[in-house]
Design brief:
The chain has 159 residues and is an alpha+beta fold. It has 3 helices and 7 strands, in the order ααβββββββα. The protein has helices at 7-12, 17-28, 142-158, and strands at residues 39-45, 48-54, 63-68, 71-76, 96-101, 106-114, 117-124. The protein has a 4-stranded antiparallel beta sheet, with no helix packed on it. Strand 6 and strand 7 form a beta hairpin. 5% of the residues are buried.
Length: 159
């Protein structure tokens, strides 16, 4: 079963459209190339992440990184045809496309290619309006003081 009926979700909630599309995309995605190229996702610090892809044999010119509508897409296009006569070929030498859905406010900072690993650095920056705020509680004592002053002035008039 590869379909999920999300109608009840739409009837009782507002603003979860992206969540529903993520579920549908995850269920409908192609699993044939799910293992290539291998990758790691790591948490570097609070709100800092890195995705590392093993792209051995790819040059910087053969790699393309794009972010569009919250989806990070990494493509590798092998342009040259290898004419070697292999007895065994265990190193994959094919084009690929890998997509990662990014959460709201996650931005790509930089990408670097070193020793066959493509590392993409990401950071989650919440706008000030979205950050938790502490609200000060003011204590109002002026009403009590005001009444005490009125009583003192009434006592002076009576004497």
């Amino acid at each position: 079963m590869n379909t999920v009926d999300l109608s009840p979700l739409y009837r009782s909630s507002i603003g979860f459209d992206r969540f529903a599309s993520l579920i549908n995309h995850a269920l409908a995605s192609e699993h044939s190339n799910a293992a290539y190229p291998p990758y790691n996702i790591e948490s570097k610090a609070d709100n800092q992440y890195a995705i590392s892809l093993a792209v051995a044999g790819f040059s910087q010119e053969e790699l393309d990184i794009q972010v569009e509508k919250g989806v990070l897409t990494i493509r590798g296009n092998k342009t040259s045809k290898d004419t070697a006569n292999y007895l065994y070929q265990g190193i994959a030498n094919r084009s690929f496309e890998r997509k990662f859905n990014l959460a709201d406010y996650v931005e790509v900072r930089e990408a670097e290619l070193s020793n066959g690993l493509l590392t993409i650095h990401l950071v989650k920056e919440l706008p000030e309006a979205m950050k938790p705020q502490t609200i000060a509680i003011n204590q109002s004592t002026s009403a009590i003081e005001h009444k005490a002053e009125q009583l003192d002035s009434n006592d002076d008039k009576a004497a």
